[in-house]
Fold each of these.
Amino acid sequence: MQALVDEIKQLVIDSLNLEDITPADIETDAPLFNEGLGLDSIDALELGIALQKRYGIHLAAEAAETREHFRSVAALAAFVAANRTL
Amino acid sequence: MLENPAFPLLRDLPRTLQTRLSPVALRHGEAVSAAQFIEDTGRAISALRSLGAGRRVLYSEDTYVAAVWLVAALCEGAMLVMPGEVTAATRERLAREGDSLIGDLPDSQLRDWRDFPAATLPAQLDARSRIVIHTSGSTGTPSEIVKTLAQTEAEAAAIEQSVGASLADPKHKVLIAGSVPHQHMYGLSFRLVWPLAAGRTLLAHPLPGPETLWSLPAGQRAVFISSPALLKRLPDTLDWSALAPLAGVVSAGSPLPRESAQDASRKLGCVVTEIYGSSETGAVARRVDPDGAWLPLPGARWQLGTDDCIAWQAPWLAAEFGGDRWFQSADRAEAANGSFRLLGRADRLAKIEDKRISLTAIEAALRALDEVAEARVVVLHGARDEVGAVLVLSERGHAALAAEGKGALDRRLRAQLARSVEPLGLPRRWRHVAALPHNELGKTTEAALQDCFDTNTAGAGHPWRQWPRVLDSHRDGDRQTLTLAIDGDLIHFDGHFPQIPILPGVAQLDWALHFAAQHFALPPDCLRLEVVKFQQVIRPGQRVLLQLDWNATKASLSFEYRSGETGEHRHASGRITLGTATDTGA
């Protein structure tokens, strides 16, 4: 799981083209959006696309559910582990 | 200048109505006499007296109905709020603050005055009355502008002395019609207050589209109070030759392009008078030549203030902008022929992924931070639209940079900014510079700010620029040490060389500058390279340390690439002197 967590941190940095940040700077349990890393609505779109490409997962159209998966890297890793097809 | 020095004052309206011959309004095709207006207003006064204390919130799309309630409120010394629209939030606030809603909405407490007895109007309107109007909210949430009776009166007089006096027709004959709502400052001043005060007849119903102009009564010339939104879209397909020439057209809201002004002038049979102003200032200037300079309305004074933006004083500016103070707009201007020309907005509203964001507001929020001495932002159009911030750090900012490192500091500043700036407006790229770049005129140009990112930003327009993954990064005084993963898929190995891929020296220099710019406040330009040596090649799959030492006094950056358990293998090293190139060709 730790490997997947690190992988997702790197994916977040790469797919969102984040600057001046290393995987070590992203707290596993901290919120990705609003507070914490402070990602925005366009980031959510980009990250969704990157996750789909990399792990073959599809995010639910239901916004509330997607928001839950995007809560933190930990939540995202759990979601990817359970749903990945690639 | 003052063609009409005996202009009647709004406060004397109850008296002037007594002798007024022209109809107050044209409504449903019928003229409403002054006597009828006095009676309606008297009944409206009684109706208002039936309400409890608190403010009166008026919403009616019928300009005659609004005029009756407004004059009744002015007779009573009331606080009358005219919202642009009545939203759920407005209703909630009304309920909470005990204000009363009057007018045409289904839940209005007062919808009609007819069943109330006609009270006698006072000799003069009550000077304690206030009219509250909302700003359009285009730069944020709508805010309230509070106008006194004297201010409202002063603006109406200035409009009559300028726009009114320029109308060719005898004053009592002209009908004031319009396409703009009277719930906003422009429409309120021109469609409702001005005709009332100047004894001109107002058209109760708006004329929202060009085709509605044919509904104007025959035999009476009209002034059309409109805006570029409509005047730019007068279809050629309508039979304009069949429309009786108008007595005047007034346009406000944004500048009317010259072609549109000429087109409107031809189709409507009169010149277009453009009005300059805002919710805060009211009408302050006019022009009839779309290429010409603006003339202040009588009583309005202007000067160039901050950043060449025009500032205003006029007797009708609301109290918070009035008195000895100048209202500073965000419209840049230059003096021309004793008057002024507008040069565009200074607050730089940018579209970021379809959302309107005020760059000026972001800069103000950045400057308010303790760590920041100066700040400018630009919109970067790379893979996505994003905001880049160029900062000059304060003393405290430099201390924080040394203690926390650039990434952590930037993220902290971003989090602080998030309290006042919406997510899409939060900077995603940060550059710390010793001084803001400026040209020979001392101006910080957009292009120079973009350059701060172009030379340092991943991707943006330079496919060959790519950065290695940073595995670790730590700060020790003026030294930043990064651990870099040299992945085989880096663009630099592409064809360099086909059989033996090695990392080009130019990429190593580029990386050193790139990462140094992230961690230190570097001057914008690279002046010269010194003692640069490439001792051992760097191959794909390696993990290297990049050690950067910044000497601010000498403006000199030393770099060193090493690898091995204890960093015993030295790959490259050198020194780069930075500064500001004297001629940037700006």
Amino acid sequence: MAGLAAIFGSGAMTNSLREIEGMEVIFIIGSNTKETHPVIANRMIRAFRKGAKIIVADPRKIPMVKFSELFLRMRPGTDIALLNGMAHVIVRDGLQNDEFIADKTEGYEAWKKSLETYTPEYAETITGIPKDDIVSAARLYGGSRRAGIFYTMGITQHACGTDNVRAIANLATLTGNIGREFTGVNPLRGQNNVQGASDAACLPNVYPGYQKVDLPEVREKFEKAWGTALSPKAGLTATEMMNAAVEGKIKAMYIMGENPILTDPNMHHTVKALENIDFVVVQDIFLTETARYADVVLPAACAAEKDGTFSNTERRVQRVRKAVEPPGESRDDLSVILELAGRIGYDMNFTTPAEVLAEFGRVWPALAGIDYHRIAQRGLQWPCPTREHPGTEYLYKDGFPKGKVPFTPVSYIPAAEVPNAEFPFVLTTGRNLFQYHSGTMTRKVVPIEEHAGTPYVEISRADADRLKIKHDEMVKIRSRRGQIEVRARVTSRVSEGIIFIPMHYHEAAANMLTNDVLDPVVKIPEYKVCAVAIESV
Amino acid sequence: MVTLKINNIEAVVPEGTTVLEAARKAGIYIPALCQHPKLTPFGGCRLCLVEIKGMPRPVTSCTTPAAEGMEVATTSPVIERLRRTVLELILSDHPNDCMVCEQAGSCTLQELAYEYGIRENRFEGERRKYARKDGNPFIERDLEKCIMCGRCVKICDEVQGVEAIEFGYRGFDAKICTPFEEDLDCEFCGQCVSVCPTGALTGKLWSKKGRQLGVREVDSTCPYCGTGCMLTYHVKDNEIVRVTSKEDGLNEGLLCVKGRFAYKYVNSPDRLRKPLIKKDGVFVETSWDDALDLIADKLKEVKAEHGPDAIAGLSSARCTNEENYAFQKFIRAAIGTNNVDHCARL
């Protein structure tokens, strides 16, 4: 998201979900929308019924392929070659939006030069997608002025994730497919309130509303608002915290509602980090894998047991309401934090969640117009600066906050780990329809477990035959970092040489295998590509 | 735009609007079982029959486009008699077990029988007998209650794009089938359950948990992915007994398997109930007071000894905006470090 924010000014989805239905072309890259955002896929299918053309670019034959005009089956980690190849064709065929480029962008000529080598032929050799399909995709996307791009972790979870996002932004900028209704760049947020947690600045480099901690005037504003001195130094990201912990630099850690043991790459490393921290507090609804490493565990209320708001992927702030009482002595997270802050000697003076949202709106104007009363029936999309403002459906209607949108040359770099003789397969990880993230919630649901409770690895028929692996048979998967045993699911979803493991299952944790190499800018781990070996058990 | 008269009330609607939609827009009620705003018209149930001036016999309003100057009557003794007969025919082959049916109270068929006061039935005859043998853990399919309206088939195809079910067989033997009549194996979004006008499709989890009496409805936002579907918790005795979604939310009543059926984590017996402190490698229950004092003391101690940057906080995309705001403020203002992050990247 930081990658997108640096280009357009904000890290959020530029369109709203409603607008999907008005799009002519929907370009889905690195998003298994039908399984990870099923109801957004419903919108896309409705657009498809109305005549929209859907392009799917993915290493796997994911369910949305059924509705696609074009399926670009790419090798994992080759997104930049595809996106640059498409841009090359758009420029070559004169489909670019000259007016938009002249008025709203900068750096076009230099960037255009950087595309010269990305001929469809070259892109084919990297991506494995037939060159004619790359040309067709470019013409389809470039030929429309109502085209939307949708992506998720398939784009960002790479060592080159930021460059992948830049390549997407370049494509939208080249065609002017941004800043209007029915066209834009749309990162679909994976978790219910990842947008809100980012807006609220559970991020090490910004205060609420993406206001940089290292700008003195911003810091002064927050020091005044919060009545205390604040650190001028940007903090550590989650993955950096774990590294610092291994080095002994972190002495205490407070984990609220996270399960890094399962969700962070290279599990051994995470375990070592937590064991190395003197004092760990975990506040959660279950005794998670991470909670087992805690010194104190606090029982928390879940989403159905508290009042508040979530912000969805289209920046819509919506009400969460208490439906049932939390079990036993468990308490909602907010009251615990307020109580603890008081005991440390910093009184936050909030009595209700509504008061917290009000302060959030005072320090970040985009939320100033939103209160519980206004969103009682239906949520509002930020920016919503005043009580009269109807909310903002799509971003950049009146131009870009930074003035001009930069074109950023990016070049294809192979993944940090490529297959070799010892580890001949590419492992890519992701999610399935039934489970959710580390499974803390869904794995406690009996019907979900009955139906989708067994971990598996997707492997192609050709590879299975060659290795004499049968469907449903246990196999051992090894990487440089660890190994797991898991059932083989022989399927046409993956191509030869590529295997897929869903991340949800602690008993066969994909992140025992994944590579903890990070994107240098936004520090996302490369979950989508690592090299592994497979053998029968 | 076309102008027509429905029950002598003038209605102006865009071209392509059906007579049924035009009537609904004008606030005029026409009963229907197979028609649904999300689905293409079917004309199967024959309840939405209306009389249109100049047409020799009643027509189904759900499949008739509104036309300029049309004069429509949505009710008349003839129409009502036809509707009553249609209902009696449907009910003649429908188990009369509303007493124990999950859908009682939210069943369109039951409501129509009530409206038309149908207690006895002129059409006694053979009834379909089907064994319930579906092995899936989410959706209960009681084919004896199915009225063959086809809403489930259509929503599965048109809206969900899955095509897990179809009409099978002919005439009296016709029923909704999965491929080769195997157990249902689909995305289990439950869209079919949400549009079923009878108790033929219900959630297996709902069974005997409560219908309306003593059940509260609470509108909230789904706790799973970032789409932010609006949902309604049905709550009885401090337990969520059902999840539904209203048509007026951004998701227009659609949900996925997680939103609709994965709510039981809430009252899982594995939930944490008391604060725990680890003593000699084992967790022991403690009071909130002791737990919070220990945390406050430890954090103050680490801060004094190693500085605030030796403390780090991980917040959660699970938690609310308010909790996240308060958490980062706690780390920044109370502790004094910017070491705060969440799992956006993971």
